[in-house]
């Protein structure tokens, strides 16, 4: 029996994740049945669960995959850019990513086992945000009168608020200036006059 190449295995895993993302976003975790996962991925249950132990492992892998993608954007452009991408639909899977994020939030509230498993994976975004803020502080761009951990928590709360806003079906077209304000609020402001007033 010929061996399957690593490239083929990686492509199959990506196919499963991409199809599953759509399925979980459309139906939610509970209603994303194996049959619906098969339809969304175009693969059999055997093929899906050859790569992932069970549905929860698949969902965790998907959520982790999204967290890694977000962390990459944060490292390069900051957490506010992640929010801008959500508003402008420039991220690779904006609506589906939002669905995954909402499902993670719901399961964290209602499922202690999931919460324990997710805790191991949830630090990527916080770590990426904190590292970028530290680099900005060292470069003199970030305000220095507020602790970096406080600024990190602030930006993460704004992200969660934006996700909730979009989840309720509220429009995001007019939120660009709000994100401008958020970005400006974490920047260092130099005194405009010799007297030190802003």
Automatic annotation (TrEMBL):
The keyword DNA-binding applies. GO terms for molecular function: DNA binding. The keyword Thylakoid does not apply. Residues 33-52 bind DNA. It comes from the Bacteria. InterPro entries: DNA-bd_HTH_TetR-type_CS (IPR023772), Homeodomain-like_sf (IPR009057), HTH_TetR (IPR001647), Tet_transcr_reg_TetR-rel_C_sf (IPR036271). Keywords: DNA-binding, Transcription, Transcription regulation. Gene3D superfamilies: Tetracycline Repressor, domain 2. Residues 10-70 form the HTH tetR-type domain. This is TetR family transcriptional regulator. It comes from Amycolatopsis coloradensis.
